[in-house]
Amino acid sequence: MSAAVDAFIAGPAVSLWLERASVVLGIAYSLLAVRRSRWCWVCGGLSSAIIVYLSALHRLPMQAGLQAYYVAVSIYGFRRWLQHAKDAGSQVTTWPLRAHAASWAVILILSLLSARWLAAETEAAWPFLDSVTTWASLLATWLVVQMKLENWLYWIAIDVVLTYLFGAQRLYLLALMFACYLCISVVGFLAWFKTYRLQAARV
Fold this sequence. Notes:
This protein has one domain (2-202).
Protein backbone atom coordinates (compact mmCIF):
# COMPACT_ATOMS: atom_id res chain seq x y z
CA MET A 1 0.00 0.00 0.00
CA SER A 2 2.81 2.44 0.87
CA ALA A 3 4.55 1.79 -2.45
CA ALA A 4 1.27 2.39 -4.32
CA VAL A 5 0.71 5.67 -2.52
CA ASP A 6 4.28 6.77 -3.23
CA ALA A 7 3.87 5.91 -6.90
CA PHE A 8 0.63 7.90 -7.07
CA ILE A 9 2.15 10.96 -5.41
CA ALA A 10 5.15 10.82 -7.75
CA GLY A 11 2.93 10.40 -10.80
CA PRO A 12 2.93 12.99 -13.60
CA ALA A 13 -0.67 14.10 -13.00
CA VAL A 14 -0.13 14.85 -9.31
CA SER A 15 3.25 16.43 -10.04
CA LEU A 16 1.61 18.73 -12.58
CA TRP A 17 -1.05 19.86 -10.11
CA LEU A 18 1.61 20.48 -7.48
CA GLU A 19 3.57 22.57 -9.98
CA ARG A 20 0.44 24.62 -10.73
CA ALA A 21 -0.24 25.21 -7.05
CA SER A 22 3.35 26.25 -6.38
CA VAL A 23 3.26 28.64 -9.36
CA VAL A 24 0.08 30.37 -8.17
CA LEU A 25 1.33 30.65 -4.59
CA GLY A 26 4.80 31.73 -5.70
CA ILE A 27 3.52 34.51 -7.91
CA ALA A 28 1.18 35.63 -5.14
CA TYR A 29 4.22 35.79 -2.84
CA SER A 30 6.15 38.02 -5.24
CA LEU A 31 3.25 40.38 -5.89
CA LEU A 32 2.55 40.75 -2.18
CA ALA A 33 6.27 41.29 -1.50
CA VAL A 34 6.27 44.18 -3.98
CA ARG A 35 3.48 45.73 -1.88
CA ARG A 36 5.43 44.90 1.28
CA SER A 37 2.52 42.88 2.64
CA ARG A 38 3.45 40.38 5.36
CA TRP A 39 1.01 37.88 3.84
CA CYS A 40 3.58 37.27 1.12
CA TRP A 41 5.37 35.00 3.60
CA VAL A 42 2.33 32.73 3.96
CA CYS A 43 2.05 32.21 0.20
CA GLY A 44 5.81 31.85 -0.14
CA GLY A 45 6.04 29.26 2.61
CA LEU A 46 3.33 27.08 1.06
CA SER A 47 4.86 27.37 -2.42
CA SER A 48 8.29 26.43 -1.08
CA ALA A 49 6.94 23.40 0.76
CA ILE A 50 5.64 22.06 -2.55
CA ILE A 51 8.89 22.78 -4.39
CA VAL A 52 10.86 20.89 -1.71
CA TYR A 53 9.14 17.72 -2.86
CA LEU A 54 9.36 18.47 -6.59
CA SER A 55 13.05 19.41 -6.43
CA ALA A 56 13.93 16.23 -4.56
CA LEU A 57 11.94 14.17 -7.04
CA HIS A 58 13.80 15.69 -10.00
CA ARG A 59 17.33 15.42 -8.57
CA LEU A 60 17.92 19.04 -7.55
CA PRO A 61 19.07 18.48 -3.96
CA MET A 62 20.39 21.98 -3.33
CA GLN A 63 17.11 23.49 -4.49
CA ALA A 64 15.22 21.11 -2.19
CA GLY A 65 17.33 22.23 0.75
CA LEU A 66 16.94 25.86 -0.25
CA GLN A 67 13.17 25.61 -0.39
CA ALA A 68 13.11 23.99 3.05
CA TYR A 69 15.06 27.02 4.28
CA TYR A 70 12.44 29.26 2.65
CA VAL A 71 9.70 27.55 4.64
CA ALA A 72 11.52 28.33 7.89
CA VAL A 73 12.35 31.89 6.81
CA SER A 74 8.72 32.49 5.84
CA ILE A 75 7.75 32.05 9.47
CA TYR A 76 10.49 34.42 10.59
CA GLY A 77 9.72 36.90 7.81
CA PHE A 78 6.04 37.06 8.70
CA ARG A 79 6.85 37.81 12.33
CA ARG A 80 9.55 40.32 11.34
CA TRP A 81 7.29 42.28 8.99
CA LEU A 82 4.49 42.18 11.53
CA GLN A 83 6.86 43.88 13.97
CA HIS A 84 7.78 46.43 11.29
CA ALA A 85 4.11 47.33 10.95
CA LYS A 86 3.77 47.82 14.71
CA ASP A 87 6.84 50.05 14.87
CA ALA A 88 7.44 53.27 12.95
CA GLY A 89 6.56 51.60 9.65
CA SER A 90 8.42 49.54 7.10
CA GLN A 91 11.51 51.32 5.77
CA VAL A 92 13.40 50.34 2.63
CA THR A 93 17.15 50.59 3.26
CA THR A 94 20.35 49.67 1.40
CA TRP A 95 23.38 47.54 2.13
CA PRO A 96 27.02 48.75 1.91
CA LEU A 97 28.92 47.79 -1.26
CA ARG A 98 31.68 46.12 0.79
CA ALA A 99 29.08 43.86 2.40
CA HIS A 100 27.89 42.73 -1.04
CA ALA A 101 31.46 42.09 -2.20
CA ALA A 102 32.31 40.05 0.90
CA SER A 103 29.08 38.08 0.63
CA TRP A 104 29.68 37.19 -3.01
CA ALA A 105 33.20 36.02 -2.27
CA VAL A 106 31.75 33.65 0.33
CA ILE A 107 28.97 32.56 -2.04
CA LEU A 108 31.43 31.64 -4.79
CA ILE A 109 33.65 29.67 -2.42
CA LEU A 110 30.68 27.77 -0.96
CA SER A 111 29.29 27.15 -4.44
CA LEU A 112 32.54 25.63 -5.69
CA LEU A 113 32.81 23.40 -2.62
CA SER A 114 29.19 22.22 -2.69
CA ALA A 115 29.25 21.71 -6.48
CA ARG A 116 32.31 19.51 -6.16
CA TRP A 117 30.63 17.44 -3.46
CA LEU A 118 27.38 17.14 -5.42
CA ALA A 119 29.20 16.04 -8.55
CA ALA A 120 31.11 13.37 -6.65
CA GLU A 121 28.48 12.09 -4.22
CA THR A 122 25.06 12.63 -5.82
CA GLU A 123 23.29 12.49 -9.16
CA ALA A 124 22.71 16.25 -9.20
CA ALA A 125 21.86 17.44 -12.71
CA TRP A 126 23.50 20.87 -12.48
CA PRO A 127 25.93 20.93 -9.54
CA PHE A 128 27.34 24.45 -9.91
CA LEU A 129 24.17 26.23 -11.05
CA ASP A 130 22.19 24.44 -8.36
CA SER A 131 24.79 25.48 -5.78
CA VAL A 132 25.34 29.12 -6.72
CA THR A 133 21.63 29.89 -6.99
CA THR A 134 21.06 28.21 -3.65
CA TRP A 135 23.70 30.17 -1.75
CA ALA A 136 22.80 33.44 -3.48
CA SER A 137 19.13 32.88 -2.70
CA LEU A 138 19.91 32.43 0.99
CA LEU A 139 21.41 35.91 1.01
CA ALA A 140 18.67 37.43 -1.14
CA THR A 141 15.96 36.05 1.13
CA TRP A 142 17.65 37.54 4.19
CA LEU A 143 17.81 40.88 2.35
CA VAL A 144 14.05 40.68 1.72
CA VAL A 145 13.37 40.09 5.42
CA GLN A 146 15.54 43.10 6.26
CA MET A 147 13.81 45.18 3.53
CA LYS A 148 17.04 45.91 1.68
CA LEU A 149 16.50 47.44 -1.77
CA GLU A 150 19.19 45.33 -3.42
CA ASN A 151 17.32 42.08 -2.80
CA TRP A 152 15.48 42.63 -6.09
CA LEU A 153 18.72 42.87 -8.07
CA TYR A 154 19.80 39.54 -6.61
CA TRP A 155 16.49 37.97 -7.54
CA ILE A 156 16.69 39.27 -11.11
CA ALA A 157 19.99 37.44 -11.62
CA ILE A 158 18.88 34.33 -9.73
CA ASP A 159 15.57 34.07 -11.60
CA VAL A 160 17.33 34.13 -14.97
CA VAL A 161 19.42 31.11 -13.97
CA LEU A 162 16.54 29.22 -12.32
CA THR A 163 14.30 29.71 -15.35
CA TYR A 164 16.91 27.90 -17.41
CA LEU A 165 17.66 25.28 -14.74
CA PHE A 166 14.06 24.14 -14.21
CA GLY A 167 13.35 24.30 -17.94
CA ALA A 168 16.32 22.04 -18.61
CA GLN A 169 14.83 19.53 -16.16
CA ARG A 170 11.48 19.72 -18.00
CA LEU A 171 9.70 21.35 -15.08
CA TYR A 172 8.18 23.82 -17.48
CA LEU A 173 5.60 25.34 -15.17
CA LEU A 174 8.27 26.03 -12.56
CA ALA A 175 10.44 27.53 -15.30
CA LEU A 176 7.50 29.74 -16.28
CA MET A 177 7.04 30.70 -12.65
CA PHE A 178 10.64 31.87 -12.37
CA ALA A 179 10.27 33.79 -15.65
CA CYS A 180 7.28 35.54 -14.06
CA TYR A 181 9.39 36.12 -10.94
CA LEU A 182 11.96 37.81 -13.14
CA CYS A 183 9.41 40.30 -14.44
CA ILE A 184 7.98 40.86 -10.96
CA SER A 185 11.48 41.39 -9.56
CA VAL A 186 12.05 44.22 -12.03
CA VAL A 187 8.75 45.80 -10.97
CA GLY A 188 9.63 45.20 -7.31
CA PHE A 189 12.97 46.94 -7.64
CA LEU A 190 11.39 49.98 -9.30
CA ALA A 191 8.63 50.16 -6.68
CA TRP A 192 10.99 49.81 -3.72
CA PHE A 193 13.45 52.27 -5.28
CA LYS A 194 10.65 54.82 -5.56
CA THR A 195 9.81 54.26 -1.89
CA TYR A 196 13.47 54.56 -0.94
CA ARG A 197 13.79 57.89 -2.76
CA LEU A 198 10.62 59.24 -1.12
CA GLN A 199 11.97 58.24 2.28
CA ALA A 200 15.26 60.02 1.55
CA ALA A 201 13.42 63.16 0.43
CA ARG A 202 11.54 63.31 3.73
CA VAL A 203 14.75 63.22 5.78
